[in-house]
Amino acid sequence: MDLDTPKSAPPPDGHFGFFQTLLGLIFRDGDPERERRRELKEIGKKITKSKYKFFKPRGEEALPRLAKFFYDIYKVTAPAQILLDKAEASGVFRTILVEQDFTDSHRRLRDSCSEEAIREALQTGDKKAVVNQIKQNLIKLYAFFDNERIAKIEQTYALFEVFIAFINFDFYFLLRKFDSRFPENDFGYSPNFDAINGDYVTDDLKDFLELLPLLAAESNWDGLFDALAEYKGNDVLSRGNWKKLMRVIVDVKQSRILEYIVQVLDQNPKYRAVGVLNQEHIVESYLAKLKTQTEMTMQKLIQEEQSQKIEGLVVQVFGTAGVSRLNNYTEKANVNFSKKMLGGYIHVAPLNYLKAFLLDYVKKDIREIINILIVQGQWPARITSQQLSESFHSLLQITEELLAFDDALSPEGDLGQALWGYFKRSDRDPNAMTSLRQKLKEVNDRSYNYIQLAGQNLVSIGKNLKQCLDDYEKPTGELVTNWKQLNTMAGGHLRDQMVASYKKTYYFIQLLQLYLKKKNS
């Protein structure tokens, strides 16, 4: 080496620092693992400097002060956890929250939709008017919930869900890790918390950190606690203690100390806690439920009213509510159809009553009156007698066809063999199910046609019997000129017989019309 050659001088401090930084950037980009360790080291320093002495990075120990933090939360929230057990699943609190701002007027609108109120209204008022009034009441109630009110209610309910999730956090399970003798809900016990391996609480901290982003001191906690007090009849916790607790929780959240601890324990500096809030539209659900319940109540009560009318008319006509004449077109057969999710025979009741009326009255009492009037009566004009005769003979024909129709539905009859043949094959043959549906439709259409056609002919008989009764009361008959002779032939009871037949026919027509209206509505 040449002694006269000077040694290289070190670069100035600024240049050295620049090159060190540049090299650091190069090596950092090229060595993610080195960068991860560096970040974790920085996070460890932040934990050490934090005022919250929850964790010891060297040795990764969870310290007693971390347990004390959760213990303080547990003391405040434990009463609410007990009082609000299963509250989230209850629809009562949702209803209280939605109706919290109701005035007396709004409560009256709501109450008008109850079953008791609707039943009373239907008993004392016109059915159509009652239905229209209830619809108007629902419209007024819907109008109460404008966008601003809905947003307020649903924000409060979202806060309720956060609160429930928070108080239901398993603080007891976590605290037992620091003190194995720690008793549940016994705050007379003085806990003795020990430092423990941080790995024991990593999952607990992650669960808790999912709640932290959702908690804010400025939230409408008083609005929520007012609704909860109405729900339980008293405050569920000390509001003063809750506000103090919220200040501590918000400070801990802002310090990010718990997040840093998890990052170190997971050796993942990229870990971030994310709170997810599921927003439930409770106002929409409330109104939909109210509307549905109201409509179902109306249908139920109207159906009850119709059933009472039907039963009353059946008793008027037949003297009993227990009338059974059909042998095969029956509800008993429908049990099998229901197993295939089929409606089966859908006109059983009216067809059963029709068969009974045709056999018990048309072929007996009404036949006797018609025979006297048509055969023995003297009719200057034959129009009314012709109408009576044609209607009566049409009913006799319907009677025979109906008897044959019911017999044909027996397992041995042609209709019955076809139906039950398709029925047996329907499980393995889709075409058989299609044919079964079509055959049922044909059968039901025939039964409805019998009811409709018989009803038309009975109306004709009823009108003509009424004309005959009116003519009978006249000093000199115009439709029939020999009423006295006919009365003698009837044993002096012709008028009574005509009145009885007319009433039976009138009541039976009303009975059929109830079923015909139901089908056409």
Structure description:
- With 521 residues, the protein is an all-alpha fold.
- It is built from 21 helices and three strands.
- The chain folds into two domains: 228 residues, no CATH class; 198 residues.
- Strands 1-2-3 form a three-stranded antiparallel sheet.
- Helix 4 packs across helix 11 and helix 17 packs antiparallel against helix 19.
- The chain is elongated.
- The protein starts with 12 loop residues before the first helix and ends with a helix.
What separation lies between the terminal Cα atoms? Answer: 117 Å
Largest sheet: 3 strands, antiparallel
The number of helical runs is 21
Structural class: mainly alpha
Spans of at least 5 consecutive residues with low confidence: 1-14
Radius of gyration: 43 Å
Strand order of the largest sheet: 1-2-3
SSE pattern, N- to C-terminal: HHEEHHHHHHHEHHHHHHHHHHHH
Portion of residues in helices?
over 70%
